[in-house]
Amino acid sequence: MSTESIPVPTAAKAVPPGAAEKRSAPEILTGSGAILRSLEYLGITDVFGLPGGAIMPFYDELMSSTAIRHILVRHEQGAGHAAEGYASATGKIGVAIATSGPGATNLVTAIADAYMDSVPLLAITGQVFSTLMGSDAFQEVDIVGITMPITKHSFLVTRPEDVPATIAAAYHIATTGRPGPVLVDVTKDAQQLSAPFIWPPKVDLPGYRPVTKAHGKQIQAAAQMLAEAKRPVFYVGGGVVRAKASPELLKLAELVGAPVVTTLMARGAFPDSNKLNLGMPGMHGTVPAVLAIQESDLLISLGARFDDRVTGKPSEFAPDAKVVHVDIDPAEISKIRTADVPIVGDAKDVIADLTVAFAQATKTTVSDLTEWWVRLDKLREQFPLGYDEPDDGLLSPQYVIERIGQLTGPEAIYASGVGQHQMWAAQFIKYERPNSWLNSGGAGTMGYGVPAAMGAKVAEPERTVWAIDGDGCFQMTNQELATCTINNIPIKVAIINNSSLGMVRQWQTLFYDGRHSFTDLNTGHDTVMIPDFVKMADAYGALGIRVTKKEEVDAAIKLANATNDRPVVVDFIVSRDSMVWPMVPQGVGNSSVQYARDHAPEWDEE
Known about the structure:
The protein is an alpha/beta fold. It contains 23 helices and 22 strands.
């Protein structure tokens, strides 16, 4: 049985009833008032949402709050992604609010996204009156049933007295163990009726017992294997970021002297400037990172889940390596690749313990990694990350993104959409700290970038926040520019405009004999731009800039960085023929990585 205390953060504006015996009797609140009070007790200061009929009682209460800032979005999906961006930039929980029916279902994509990427998210939805449930009432949808597979848990509240304990439990589940989304669906009558507000001093959830401290013998076994390995690799996943374990990772990696690879979700978990960092592994990873894993004799997997975009064909992934798999979620251990040493625990604690154990193990066993680094440095020299200039006279997208990173710096936050621009942003911006790179890794959600950047800017208003988006992604959620303008959230948006669905087009070029079916978007390469993104930016009250020449790139980025009284949209017109390299084609082993199309082997999709 899990029994956890729920502290009242100092950020809370109220004191729980009964605390220090200051109240002799519980306060009587409506259910909607109880939702608001619960959020205040938990220290929530910002929420994203859009009102509707079934959640209206709560919005009536929220209007009077001085502790919580509500950001009115233009679409509920924007609320969900903004809450994700808020959480991913800070490590705190993000909160999204919607009404019943379509309001709730519009949150589903963001909830699924948060589930795949282990983002702590609290989704609060209104539901029709409990007496109408099951009757196909207006805007009735079983959102608890819909979201059960894509949340850590989904609650239905039909009584006002159940609100405080449910919100406390939802917060606890979302933020402990492997973080993730939790949904709380509250019927309209539960919001309107009143009951004593009793804040639970503890959360008691039978069956929910996340393990954070690993078994000592497993730590010792992993340390001994690491001490004996001749070709070890630290395979670092997003779990290290979620666990706030970057300082511990840096200490361990430098003690061992082994190479580090950081997955798409872990960019920034280990500084790119550190000589041990080989870059990103996987389908579009660096050649040194990909081949280091393939040639390794020991993989120390830290908070990574052996995703197919990293492993390629699983049976050919790191064929000679033993595996130490560290994850807080026991369901991930040996799911794809059998672990020789399985370790269930919080990455921060496990890495710290492993550092101590390795130092002890090396008193009797010391493996020389010199030969291994000779091989890796040769790969670095032979296959540096680079790109060719387009031959159509248009901008190189890699150059544009590289300059954004260089001129803005590592203290900024970069949120991307999904597609080619996402991979280029992961490759060509240098990340020196965790929580500086936000993207949709597992779900691959187009439209994530702008609202996630908005949420990150709300959470970290002093940081520069760039949304690096594609012309396809941008058109899915660009309505949130209105939210940004009205609420003084001055994000910067770089549209990497190749006038097409770029990643789909790349696959059509490579796998479908260049038959580019239904991927042209007509946004930048034609006489008529539909839409004209500069005019659109102006219509939303943002600064719009179009860049078509290389010599204009730096000036546009500097102007965007200097403009903080409104959002900025920079429409970079780039070559549609630019491709993401390196690439491991789907369905083949990672040893088939090619650096450019000229070196591409024959392959078949699986």
